[in-house]
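Bug #77: duplicate submission created two jobs. Keeping one. Sequence:
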Amino acid sequence: MRRLRSGQAMYTTIVDPSTLYAHLDDPAWVIFDCRNDLANPAAGEALYAEGHIPGAYGVQLERVLTGVKTGRNGRHPLPEPGAFAHFLQAAGVGPATQIAAYDGGGGDMFAARFWFLARWLGHAAVALLDGGYQAWTSAGFPVSREAPPPRQAPGGPALEHDELTAQAGEILASLNGGHLLVLDARSPDRFAGQNEIIDPVAGHIPGAANRFYKENFDASGRLKPAEVLRAEFAAAGVRSPVAVVHQCGSGVSACVNLLAMEHAGLRGSRLYPGSWSEWIADPARPVARD
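Kept job's structure:
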C-alpha cells in the first residue's frame, strides 16, 4: 500500500466505511459529500442539510465540479483549476491530506467526478467511500446536520495534469484506424441512439465501445473486485489502458469507468471532458447509431 509523506496509508481508489469511521476525527483526513442529481441542481444541498457524514463538506455539481459553459464545451466542462484548488484548500486539503468523497450509493457518479478532479490537480490521496452514504448509514455510523467551518490549508494542489485528459481533435484524428479506444459510459440505449432525453443529437462517436458506468458496481452498490473489473474491461475491448479515452454525456459518469480501471490495476486511461455534449456541438463531427 502506498503511503503519504506523514507515513499514513494512502487510499487512491476506494475506502471502506469502517476505515473512514476510524479516521472521522483525524485532522489529516477531509471528507466531501458529493450527492447531487443531474435533473435537480438543488438536490445536493437539500440532501446535505438533511444529514451527512460528520465533518463532511458539501459539493455542488454545478458550482464546484463544473466550469464556465460556452455552448461548445459540453454540459459540464472542467472547472478552472485554480478555483477548484481554492475550494479544496478552504476545506483544509493540503499536500499530505487524505481525501474521502462519497455519493448516495448504489452506483452514483458525482464522487468519481470529484476523485478525477483532485487527481487532475495532482492530489493522489483521494478515494471514494465504497457503497457511499447508503453503506455508511447501513453500518449504523453517525450522521450530522452541522456544516464544518472552513479550515484553510497551507499549500495544496495547484496545477492540472493535462495528461489525464484527451480532446476532441485527438479523438477525431484517431477515428480512421487510430490507436485510441473510446469507451462510452452512457446506458446502452443512449449509446445506440435510442431514448435520448438529454442531448439534442442521439448516437455515439464512431468506433466507440460501450461500458455502462453502473456495471462497475455490485448489487449492494459497492465497486466490484479488481479481478472482476479487469475481466469485464477486457471483454469491452480494453487491451492497452493508456490507449483508452473515457466519455459519457458530459464527462461525469465516465469518471466512474476511469476510477474502476484504476482500481483494477489498469492505469493510464484518460477522460474526454466535453464528452458527447461537446462532440455534437460541432455538426462537422461524425455520429454513429446502432
